[in-house]
User: What shape does this take?
Amino acid sequence: MNITITKTFYHTLLAGVLLLTAACSKSKEDVRTGNEPDYSNSAKSSVRLVTFNTWDVMVNGRKVTNWIFTPDNMPVLPYPTPYFPVTGKLKDSWYLPQQFLDSKGEATIKIGSPGGPSQPDYLADSFTVKDDYYQPSDYYLYTSAVDHLGVYSTTRVPRTTAIPADPTHIRIRLVNLCAAAGNGSDNGLTLALANGTPVSGVTSHIANHTWSDYVELPFGTYQFKVLIDGTEQQIPGRPPTLLGTVSPDNYSLNGTQVYYSPVQTFQPGGVYTVVVARMSGVYRYGEYPLFPNTFSIIADIDPPVNIAYGRIQVVNAAVEGEKGIHIRVDGRDAPAIAYGKAGDYITLVTGQHTISITDASGKSLAEKTIDLKGGDNVTVWAYPAAGDGMGITVVANNMGGTRIIGSNADGSDALNNLYNPLKFKMLVQTRFLNLCPELPEITFTGINGVLFKEDRFSAAVAAQHLVPGQASAAPYPYVDLGPITGGSVQVYRSQPGTLPGDRITSVPALTPADFVKMPATFYPDGNYGSEPGVYTVALVGHNTAGQHPRLIVIKHNQ
Assistant: This one.
């Protein structure tokens, strides 16, 4: 049988084939590697998964992460997923997208060790989560007190939706999820300030696998510590990068009983959780990794941009004696300040404020108007001027420790990076001041007159040729004294072109112990290093026949 194909039919058939080919080509193009759908910005539920270890996650049977271990001799490559499009890894926390929730607002989560493309190597835990707007929850992976086949399962911890009642405050709490075997596992834990003072009775003595209520604190820069009840030891903080060798007995750095704890500025309106759990990949002993109980700070409610409030403190470097100086801010009295000490921080709205210094009788000694901006941390130094007068110098403290490195200060250059040394290294960030009117120029040094070094986080000139009442004009006016080997400070009478000059032997040198604010009971074997933080070292007092100046140390973070 002969079949005749007309020209019209042939053209129609060819057109259909071309359309089908184009459709197939387009479909293949849509699913090519690197062009998968991106769900990383999907609408979030109130369910938050939190982890400090390497776990793969499946949601309703779908693998959403790709933790792939790479041999040491191979480059580390990302294996992105639509939910983690950069690395494919769940690190820290992740809000479960609403698309996974069923009609009851629930989803099934499975976690396991990193494995193949479809499922983890072995299942560690399986649990159901529920979305609840009125009572949101965090699910901490690998933290429960119940052992499941050799690993710990998930702990559900409720999370607040309430912002601070006082708009100048933050809210914070302590969650104790210590592993059953490890430092602090059998003791209660207490949240403390940098000097070891408990934050509140509410956040003290928190038993294992329980959590405190939230408490309110004034906003500001804090270096929280987590103390182990009854042991005179601390829980180390979780550093953002692998931190040197630590003692396997108490996890202090190099056996010095110096513990990593981040210095962080908490802006008004923020709500935070300090959580203690076993965390991997941040400490080692020699070549061996350690997995201690470590604390990390998580934002439960991110604060708005702070344009409304700043903080000031006043230091008395002028009037000796028990009565010290009295201060008045915008006509309101504040507590007296003893000689060589800093007063409590005062929170003020942005704008201009008048700071008045008086003696115990109310006689005015000096006055200064300052212009406060949102987020400012300012120290007002009262010091003796030449003759019988009093000077005031106002210093803005860099509490973030950030330093701009790059070619353009406006941030337009990709090489213009911001570094935060207080988060990446354990630094003693120290500014120096000359507040002695009889010494026209001084230089601070290390032991035996050794000048401080210049590097990314240390500006050597910030300690050199300082004149009375003037802070260093260096763009980054801080020196890294070092938490382990540093902390020794001497002062020299210098002059232009001469460094360091002549040692002022009447001024005793500072030692690392002068940079330790924790009580001695927390260092039963002795603390062989300085505490990290933001400091000012000032030479105060008169240098006359009958008087000698001295060095004081003010720690600005709490």
User: Anything to note?
Assistant: Residues 290 and 522 are 22 Å apart (CA to CA).
